[in-house]
Amino acid sequence: MHPSVHLAVASNRGKSLVPVLQALGLDGFFELMVGSSMVSRPKPHPECLRKILDYFRVAPEQALYIGDSEVDRLLAEAAGVPLAAYKNPSLQARYHLRDHLELLPLLGWPPPKNEPAIGPLR
Q: Diameter of the chain by CA atoms?
């Protein structure tokens, strides 16, 4: 993955977020996982997304939030982060993704030959 690309999860799932991602073998893809039990106010309040932006020290316009619901749209809007709507063409968003592969050009894929491919961050 491009060194300036960071992956995180913002979810309304509480304490079960990390165990669920671990059980699915997905936890290694994310540098930060923020569930509702880690913030005082859940989505659509922007606290979880701001926590992620602060962690990576990026401005909202430098980030991209991928979501599929109105709650996700409200969260992205409140945080000032562009939204990529996943499999929801009716959701107001800067980008619309029909499948995961459509995300790759937004992330600068394919990487230059001297950079590693996408994979777990371990």
A: 43
Structure tokens at 29: 């893809």
Contact 83, 65 (CB under 8 A): yes
3-state SS string for 70-112: HHHHHHHHHHCCCEEEECCCCCCCCEEECCHHHHHHHHCCCCC
Domains and CATH numbers, the chain: 8-107 (3.40.50.1000)
Indicate the residue type of 10. Answer: A
Rg of the chain on CA atoms, in Å: 14
Residues forming a β-bridge with 86: 97
pLDDT tens digit string along 75-122? Answer: 999 999 999 999 999 999 999 999 989 988 888 777 666 655 555 443
